[in-house]
Amino acid sequence: ACGLVKNLALMVYITVGSAAYPILEFLEEWGTENFEEISPAVIPQATKIFVNGCWVGIHRDPDMLVKTLRRLRRRVDVNTEVGVVRDIRLKELRIYTDYGRCSRPLFIVEKQRLLIKKKDIQALQQRET
User: Fold this and answer.
1) Which one of 36, 70, 99, 100 is at 20 to 30 Å from 79 when CA atoms are compared?
2) Could you tell me which residue ranges the RNA polymerase Rpb2 domain spans (predicted)?
3) What is the pTM of this model?
């Protein structure tokens, strides 16, 4: 058990949090429907959107929304600590901007190829020294 704890401590960092307002604004611009705009009959077919655990609305094209959010996060237009979790089975999209979450770096793969290159790693190593 000690090795697992040590590895976790070396791999993760704790999020400091960011404001939820920019995410809520983005969701409104990108087609999230709030409760005043929808009828209850529509809810089971749509994906529910949660921000920091609060249900803020529904979206009818969650694939596009998730791809857009992740692209904006990778370009740092959205805070890099924002967590985007899609649960297809439950038809939920959970977005987290709060503090205190364990986070870790992930490698991004597109078309079965890593997007990070050797020059990127070398640039990071030079910046550390």
Assistant:
1) 36
2) 49-110
3) 0.83
